[in-house]
Amino acid sequence: MTSLHADEAFLDHYQFTHDPFAARVPGFKFFPAQRKPVLGQLHHLARYSQLLLVVTGPEGSGKTLLRQALVASTNKQAVHNVVVSAQGAADPATLMRHIAQGLNTQQTDRASLLGQVGQLSLTGQEVYLLIDDAEELSDAAIDELLILAQGNAEGRPHVFLFADTDLIARLDALSNGEESFHVIELEPYSEDETREYLAVRLDGAAQGIELLSDEQVELIHERSGGWPGEINRVAREVLIDAMAARRGAVKGGGFAFKLPKKHLLALGVVAVGVAAALLMQGRSESTDAPAPTQAQLPMDSAPPPQTAPGAPAGAEQGADGKPPIEFAGSNQPLPLPLVGQSQPVIRQPLAQAAGETDGEANVELPESTPTAPVTVPPTASQSVPAPTPAPAPQVATPAAPQPKPVEQPKPVQQPKPAEQAKPATPPAQATRPAPATQAPATAGGSQANAWYAAQNKSHYTLQVLGTSTEASARSFVSQNGAQYRYFKKMHQGKPLFVITYGSFASRDAAQAAVKTLPAKVQAGKPWPKTFASVTQEMAN
């Protein structure tokens, strides 16, 4: 992931203030493990040794960072630093010209440069000549530096070379066996030092080492070999892979195998309910379709639908004697935490399946089934007029003249007066129980914005998940309690509703509160963020 979009997604996913593993980050402090002793040794040798000093290590071992720390730690009143990169000055002429510019002189010959070094020493300033990427130097340029490091009666600069380990063999060949240089080899970090280094990097980006598991830290140390540059590269890859795996698991089809058991059980209940609903709908279509010869019979002679004892009148029954379960919105997927496109869980059908109904049973009729008026005989206490049938297309069927309507041969059990037949309604327009979506007054909107704005900007809240629809955010808040709130921000040009939990005085208190949340919320890996960042996101 190298595009700008991928970088923004990486920072947004982990709530980083900047990329913690970039080569240059704001406010980064020099990491002392395995490097502070080398830094002190360089200062000591520069004062007391007459040899050229060489710092070696593989690519990514921290040579450039050590050179920067050496320059930053010198006394500017007593040391004049000249830094040259050998990538653009590999030949002797170009190298000497860069050194002359650093010494503020126009003369580029060796004698003139040493004379300028002598003039600076008279003012109380020593000269540090630091060559980065020294492995790029030609042999002639290295030979010039060896001579400069020896100096003359006028002055002598302290020459430092930062290079890969293969430069040592070239120096041995050019020095002709004389002791003219001293080598300091950098060592890799141990696993504990790797963990401490990662903690320094993450803390600078407003996160902590708890973002990485012990297994991930071990993997980063193993792949990087303990070298700082490789630690940065591998750590970024590990976090990006974890982010991609989580998002891919949500968007792909194989996410169910990674869900907790109770989520799998809920999916199983929904699947069984959908199958049962489809089965009952098929039976209803097959049993409700009238034959052409029966369409001419009087409707008042037909026996009423059978009802189970204790079931509401007018409710259809299935083969097991129980009213069919109707799943409003059961074709919607269950939401997963931290998914921008998630939908709220439709919980009312599951409550109906457990017997917690509101006393109403919805009956769906096939859209193609014509409905004839049904006459309900009045009782002694009340007379109920027959409802007007819904208009439905009739199919003309040739038939022989039908006999006159006959009287009912025997009385039959009639439905209760309060229950009367309703016109058929196509399934798409059938009344369905809507899930509760009302949220507390402080859950979202202007009141929630005022609540976020009133909080201490240095306090923390837990970001639980984000969703692209406000209805989903309201539903989540209404189902989980008043401690949950949400705010609106813009993400990639589209509105995103971010759900948060609580207000805490410190990051540690917010982290401790994660363990008190329900398991389904903890599964989304909530993370703490300051109210200052929340208000900034709302303003943007």
Describe the structure in brief.
With 540 residues, the protein is an alpha/beta fold. The protein has 17 helices and nine strands.
What does this structure look like?
- The radius of gyration is 40 Å and the shape is elongated.
- Helices cover 38% and strands 11% of the residues.
- About 29% of the residues have low confidence.
- The protein has a five-stranded parallel sheet with strand order 2-3-4-1-5, with helices on both faces.
- With 540 residues, the chain is an alpha/beta fold.
- Among the domains are: 81 residues, no CATH class; 150 residues, 3-Layer(aba) Sandwich (Rossmann fold), CATH 3.40.50; 35 residues; 95 residues, Sporulation related repeat (Alpha-Beta Plaits), CATH 3.30.70.1070.
Helices, strands, pairings?
Blueprint: H1 4-14, H2 36-48, E1 52-56, H3 63-72, E2 79-85, H4 92-102, H5 110-122, E3 126-132, H6 139-150, E4 158-163, H7 167-175, E5 181-185, H8 191-204, H9 214-224, H10 228-251, H11 261-288, H12 348-353, H13 445-454, E6 460-467, H14 470-480, E7 484-491, E8 494-504, H15 507-514, H16 519-522, E9 527-530, H17 531-539
Parallel strand pairs: 1-4, 1-5, 2-3, 3-4
Antiparallel strand pairs: 6-8, 6-9, 7-8
Helix pairs in contact: 6-7, 9-10
Instruction: Name the poorly predicted regions.
Output: 253-257, 290-412, 414-442
What can be said about the biggest beta sheet? 5 strands, parallel
Radius of gyration: 40 Å
The protein's oligomeric status is: single chain
Number of helices: 17
**Architecture (CATH level 2) name of the domain at 36-185:** 3-Layer(aba) Sandwich
CATH class of the domain at 36-185: Alpha Beta
Strand order in the largest sheet: 2-3-4-1-5
Q: Strand-and-helix sequence, N→C? A: HHEHEHHEHEHEHHHHHHEHEEHHEH
The mean pLDDT is: 73
Helical content stands at: 25-40%
- The CATH homologous superfamily of the domain at 36-185 is called P-loop containing nucleotide triphosphate hydrolases
Distance between the termini: 25 Å
User: What is the overall shape?
Assistant: elongated
Q: Please state roughly what percent of the residues sit in beta strands, choosing from under 5%, 5-15%, 15-25%, 25-35%, 35-45% or over 45%.
A: 5-15%
CATH topology of the domain at 36-185: Rossmann fold
Structural class: alpha/beta
Annotation, overall tally of beta strands = 9
